[in-house]
Design goal:
Radius of gyration: 22 Å
Helix content: 25-40%
Strand order of the largest sheet: 10-9-8-7-11-6-12-14-13
Shape: elongated
Strand content: 15-25%
Length: 370
């Protein structure tokens, strides 16, 4: 069992290579083992590419390794249906595996036990549950989406030493460190969508794209812009073609912007409740939502108890006149958020809170890769 755990941990480690690139699919890794030796490995690297099992078999072929009688360690139940690729169960049978060790069952209705049944019916020995907890932590956004059809919500906020978020006495400028900026862009790389309010766009004119770190093949996240009163000008940078953009309005009659999808959702602003918006994003397959600003948007999400993680960055500076945002113990409690990590190697104090203290998906989330 210890050997099983070690091989499965290796499969989980290589599965991380697909995080940020395979959504709405989960990250999956697979290793093929003969005796005590890993002969091949693979992971789901890009949406539409080979699945982890198929990639591992292709790796074995390239190396000239014989897969007959080997054991496959897979972090998620193999699929048994045709999608963008053929069924992984067929690939494993073709490779002649004698046993398949699976970390977690797949809750997706297209799979949900069918892959395991297909392998057992073909006479393959199947073991389920090795390193299951670690696998489910790694796939937490996918599992949450399968269960609730809503994205996990990560809220990122930056404040000065006195909880101010801006200095209205000067033009808009960044006050956190360069390393914290890289941290924020690494976070964007691992999310499906970014959400900001109109005041953030009007004040900062952000692009909301991945720039300060290597994208590593990840697309720019979808930009969700809460332009509730239609106040953002057509010249704003967020309306460019660098990323898909969705404009959420609170008024029925609005001016359209070329190439931008506009959706009217009055309840999102009138009741300050983002529940309907999260349902909409979930229906579109968005599993990881990053809420970047500003204070009124943060307050709306926190007071409605829909935040799953907070990345809180405190800079060692003092701003002048401007809005404040205090992360109170009451707001943390309303969202069941617990502090799980803090670090200051960026020059700023970075604190990470997660719902019920659940671990982050992997060791580098959301830090820039080395």
């Amino acid at each position: 069992m210890k050997e099983n755990s070690s091989f499965m941990q290796h499969a989980l480690n290589i599965a991380e290579n697909g995080i940020g690139r395979v959504s709405p699919n989960p990250p999956v890794g697979c290793v093929l083992v003969q005796g005590e030796r890993i002969i091949a490995q693979g992971w789901h690297n890009q949406i539409g590419d080979l699945h982890a099992e198929q990639a591992a078999i292709a790796d074995a072929e390239m190396k000239g390794e014989n897969t007959e009688g080997c054991i496959a360690y897979v972090t998620l139940e193999p699929c048994n249906h045709f999608g963008r690729t053929p069924p992984c169960t067929q690939a494993l049978l073709w490779a002649g595996v004698s046993k398949v060790v699976i970390a977690s069952r797949d809750p997706n209705p297209n799979v949900r036990g069918k892959g395991i049944d297909a392998l057992i019916n073909a006479g393959i020995d199947v073991e389920v549950g090795t390193n299951e907890t670690e696998a489910e932590i790694q796939m937490q956004a996918f599992l949450n989406w399968c269960k609730f059809r809503k994205p996990l919500v990560t809220l990122k906020m930056a404040v000065d030493s006195n909880d101010k978020v801006d200095d209205r006495m000067v033009p808009s400028r960044r006050f956190t460190s360069e390393l914290s900026l890289q941290f924020a862009h690494a976070l964007r790389r691992q999310c499906d969508a970014i959400l900001v309010g109109s005041q953030t766009v009007i004040r900062d004119n952000p692009s909301l794209t991945i720039r300060k770190v290597d994208s590593e093949g990840s697309p720019n996240p979808i930009r969700i812009i809460l332009d509730t009163r239609g106040n953002i000008t057509k010249e704003a940078t967020v309306w460019n073609s660098e990323a898909e953009t969705i404009r959420i309005l609170g008024i029925e009659n609005f001016d359209s912007i070329n190439g931008i999808e506009s959706i009217c959702m009055p309840a999102v602003t009138e009741s300050r409740n983002p529940a309907d918006l999260l349902d909409l994003l979930g229906d579109r397959g968005i599993q990881e939502l990053l809420v970047e600003g500003g204070p009124s948007v943060w307050t709306s999400f926190l007071e409605n108890g829909v935040v799953d993680r907070i990345i809180h960055i405190r800079a060692d500076v003092e701003l002048e006149e401007g809005p404040e945002m205090k992360l109170s113990s009451e707001l943390l409690s309303m969202n069941n958020l617990e502090l799980i990590e803090e670090r200051k190697d960026s020059g700023d104090l970075i604190q990470i809170f997660t719902k019920f203290g659940v671990s982050l998906p992997h060791k580098n989330w959301p830090y820039p890769s080395d």
